[in-house]
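Exercise: predict the fold of this chain.
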Amino acid sequence: MTEATRHTPGTPCWVSLMAHGLDATQEFYASLFGWEFSPGPAQLGPYVRALIDGKEVAGIGRLPADRHLPVAWTPYLATDDADATAEVIRSCGGTVGVGPLDAGDAGRLAIGSDPGGAVFGIWQVAAHRGTAVHGTHGTPVWNELLTRETSSVGKFYQALFDYEAEPAVSADFDCLTLRLAGRPVASLHGVGHAPPRSRGSHWMTYFEVEDTDAAAHQVLELGGHVVEQPRDGARGRLATVADPEGAVFTIVRSESS
């Protein structure tokens, strides 16, 4: 287990879920990942922060009853200036749906979408530094964009931050790895017309688990479902699952664990 330091702009630094049933959602993730919870900024409405050993890992908020928005995990990318980054999002063909706005003294945020429609957040740190611990069960370990093709959307993200984009060696895969100062921080995966129509292009958050097969079975016991069965992949043994409200995420036992 390692503790986070300052996040270089463009680094995924936080993940947040907006759900309808806040209490039931907390129970699901507490059972699956061992999370405990503390209140988050009041400016965000009903919102809690998930903790492991007292350190912040992720956020969960309640969707307004009159808003029929998809229940999904959203990654936040670190920025030194949320307002300037929001302007770049707009100028490069993306949209900004929320903010920029202050989350109390925690920081400043905006939520936008890329030209393919995938939703992501940006976070300008103040008191809240983002995910504070990595490398243990229940912590975010990776973020991957599933989109139709990586060429144009890759240029969009490179315009936002100083990413180096490394294409996959194989001609059979449309994949880009985004790097900052040589370090891989996220990936883009072109899947043609394969994304489910209900979700379209979207970011996928990976959470570290001690045992992928056992965790996938536990998801079922807790009322969720398995979207893709446990399998071996480049990042380790992984499975794609969904919580009881349908928020999709990937669980992985990393090869480095």
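Check your answer against the key: The chain has a mean pLDDT of 92.
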